[in-house]
Structures are given as structure tokens and as C-alpha cells.
Automatic annotation (TrEMBL):
<keyword id="KW-0285">Flavoprotein</keyword>
<dbReference type="Pfam" id="PF00881">
    <property type="entry name" value="Nitroreductase"/>
</dbReference>
<keyword id="KW-0560">Oxidoreductase</keyword>
<feature type="domain" description="Nitroreductase">
    <location>
        <begin position="37"/>
        <end position="205"/>
    </location>
</feature>
<dbReference type="InterPro" id="IPR029479">
    <property type="entry name" value="Nitroreductase"/>
</dbReference>
<keyword id="KW-0288">FMN</keyword>
<dbReference type="InterPro" id="IPR050627">
    <property type="entry name" value="Nitroreductase/BluB"/>
</dbReference>
<dbReference type="InterPro" id="IPR000415">
    <property type="entry name" value="Nitroreductase-like"/>
</dbReference>
<protein>
    <submittedName>
        <fullName>Nitroreductase family protein</fullName>
    </submittedName>
</protein>
<dbReference type="GO" id="GO:0016491">
    <property type="term" value="F:oxidoreductase activity"/>
</dbReference>
Length: 239
């Protein structure tokens, strides 16, 4: 990514700055929250293709995510090749068969019942694109020096969230898939041992008869996911 000798601190004036009053901020926050409620995890895809340029821009947006020491420890492999998607599906379904045959444990399988999933993963071949997200455990400079990456799961997780939001913003639907183990993806995607597959994201347009599990619309209310510590009121002594 860089030469060690090139690393130095340089302060830049903030290049982008929002200029909203309190009302505009509230409206913007509400509009985005509403927009994200319209994002759905979809398993049923149409045959409609998706231009590679759209996928590239969504991945470009994901690459702007914050990361530990700005090392950007991620790599996205975008796959539309039919044969490769078929091989990924075959390998993933092998792992899923063991999972659903009892490897997951009774409690996990019981939790999945309302979602309606099983070992069959037709979305892996039906969706026009699969994006395999890799977390880079260590990196290498242009002059061959190996360096440590920091907060890799957290950084890659944030970038994955950016990607899902970008895909939704582009009018696409997606599905995150995490077969376990996923070591087969390194060889299939030609990625080095320094990287670990985090997830497969199926991407495309929903089919005409696409459905989602009813339970997927049940989200925890705000008071269950948010706590507020406002601190002392204005004028109060904080001692």
C-alpha cells in the first residue's frame, strides 16, 4: 500500500463540511433512518443483470470506511463468472449440509427456524454478482516489508456496512452469507494467506415473487438499543 519512508503526519483543512441547522439535521437523520428501513435481505433474485460499474462504485464507497491506523485492511472480490459462482455454491452448500445436519447445535437451528433458511443456497448462482469480502490480517509495503494491521474485524465490519448501504442506495438488494469454514474462498479467489474471508454478499435485483421472512421486519424499538447519559443540566454543579 505504501513505503514506510512515506509515512508522516500532515494536517489538512477539513475538505468537506456539512452546514445544516438543527431542523435540517433532524430531517436528514429521519430521512436516512426511513430509507434504511427499506433495505431488505433478499434470497430471491431476478435475471436482470447489474453493470460492473455500479458494483465498482459501491465498493469504492465501502473503501472510504474508517479503519485502524488508516491501513484499510480489506479486499473485495466481485464475481459474475457463472462457473465460479457455481463452484462457490457447491463448496458453500457442502459446509451448510453439515451445519444444518446438527453441527450448528439445537439452539442455533431453533433460532433460524423463523428465518426459513436451509442448506440450499440458490442465490449464490442466481444473483448476478457475488462480492467476497476479505479481512487483511497483515499487509505488505511496496518494498516488501510486512506490517501489522489494527482493529481488522472492526474495520472490515464497518466497511461491510458501508457496502450494504451503498448497494441499497444504488437500488439493489443483497444477502450476506457466511459459510463456516470459508477457507476455500482464498484459493478460489486467488487471495493470499494474509487474508481471511469474512462473508459473501449476493447482489442483484429482486425477483417478481421475492419474499422476506415476516420476522425480519421485527426490529427492536429505539429504547431497547439506545441509552442516553446526558450529563448535568446547564447551570448545574457537576461536583
Amino acid at each position: 500500500m505504501f513505503f514506510l519512508d512515506d509515512i508522516k503526519y500532515e494536517a489538512l483543512a477539513l475538505p468537506d463540511r456539512a452546514d445544516m441547522d438543527d431542523t435540517q439535521m433532524q430531517e436528514a437523520a429521519q430521512a436516512f433512518a426511513q430509507f434504511m428501513t427499506e433495505r431488505h435481505t433478499v434470497r430471491d433474485y431476478s435475471d436482470r443483470p447489474v453493470n460492473e460499474a455500479v458494483i465498482a462504485e459501491c465498493i469504492r464507497a465501502a473503501g472510504t470506511a474508517p479503519s485502524g491506523a488508516n491501513h484499510q485492511p480489506w479486499h473485495f472480490v466481485a464475481i459474475s463468472d457463472l462457473d465460479m459462482k457455481a463452484r462457490i455454491r457447491e463448496a458453500a452448500e457442502e459446509e451448510e449440509k453439515a451445519f444444518y445436519a446438527g453441527g450448528a447445535g439445537d439452539e442455533w437451528l431453533k433460532a433460524l427456524e423463523p428465518v426459513g433458511t436451509n442448506e440450499h443456497k440458490p442465490h449464490l448462482t442466481k444473483a448476478p454478482w457475488l462480492i467476497v469480502i476479505f479481512a487483511q490480517r497483515w499487509g505488505e509495503t511496496k518494498d516488501g516489508h510486512r506490517y501489522k494491521n489494527y482493529y481488522v474485524p472492526e474495520s472490515t465490519g464497518i466497511a461491510s456496512g458501508f457496502l450494504l448501504a451503498a448497494l441499497h442506495h444504488a437500488g439493489l438488494v443483497s444477502l450476506t452469507h457466511t459459510p463456516n469454514p470459508m477457507k476455500f474462498l482464498n484459493e478460489m479467489c486467488g487471495r493470499p494467506a494474509s487474508e481471511k474471508a469474512l462473508m459473501i454478499v449476493a447482489v442483484g435485483h429482486p425477483s417478481e415473487d421475492a419474499t422476506v421472512p415476516a420476522v425480519a421486519k421485527l426490529k427492536k424499538p429505539l429504547d431497547e438499543i439506545m441509552s442516553v447519559n446526558p450529563g448535568p443540566a446547564k447551570g448545574e454543579n457537576s461536583d
